[in-house]
Each structure stands twice: as C-alpha cells, then as structure tokens.
Amino acid sequence: MTDHDDTALKPRPRFKPRASARTQLALAGFVWAIGALVLGVRAVAWLAPVSAWPLLAVLALALGALKARFILEPTARKAIARIERRGTEACAGGFLSWQSWLLVIGMVALGHALRLTAIPRPTLAVVYGTVATALLIAGRLYWRAAFKRA
What we know:
Blueprint lengths: L2 H7 L8 E2 L1 H27 L5 H34 L3 E2 L6 H18 L5 H28 L2
Antiparallel strand pairs: 1-2
Helix pairs in contact: 2-3, 2-5, 3-5
C-alpha cells in the first residue's frame, strides 16, 4: 500500500461543511454584499435629514470607488485566486483565510465603536458610504468569478 492509499483511507472530518469553489466564491460575494447593504442603509439614514446630503453622497461614492480600485479589488483578486487554488470540496467557511475572518470581526467591532463616539452622524455616513460603495464595486469580482465557473 502506498502513502497515497493510506491518506485515502483517512476519514473525512464529520462536521466540516464542504463547498465547491463556485459556492465559496458566491459566499464571499454574498458576505461583501451584505456588509455593503448594512453600511449603506445606515449611511443613507444618517444622510437623509442633512441638507448637504447630495454633496456628501457624491463624496462617499468617489472615495468608495478609489478604495475599491486601490485596496479592495486587489484583496478580492487574491482571495479569488486562493479559493480557486483550494479547489473543489474545500471547507465552506474557508472562502476567507482565518486572518481575513479576524479582519472582518475587527472591522465590525470598529464600526460599532465608531457609532458609540460623538462623531457627527453625517461624517460617519460618509465613512460608511465609502466602505459600502467599495464593497459593492469590488465584490462584483467574486460574482464574476463564481458565474464564470457555471
């Protein structure tokens, strides 16, 4: 019996949900879209009562486009390559590396902490709108990669 045969006899972990690369790409796109939705809804709610909302909204959109182009799109491309390297039937939750999961948790905590500060809501709306825009723009790369595999 060869080493390859020995590894084939090892039992698969029972509680490790597996998913294809396409599913993992769609999960990543979904997570980014949900994050964008949550942040975008808050940003709109905070900007609605402000008379300068059009200017602030344009600022958030412009900054978001820049953030997507120079920060989140390269990050998404690396994550897509990582998911594709992992192949089919990898752990579903592994569409993000453990470091990326820590970053997501840290960003959620930071967003919550910012809401607890005295920073004016219109200012936070620009920050939230910037991140929401960047997530939507860069998140399209996950969807494109997922549907390219169809």
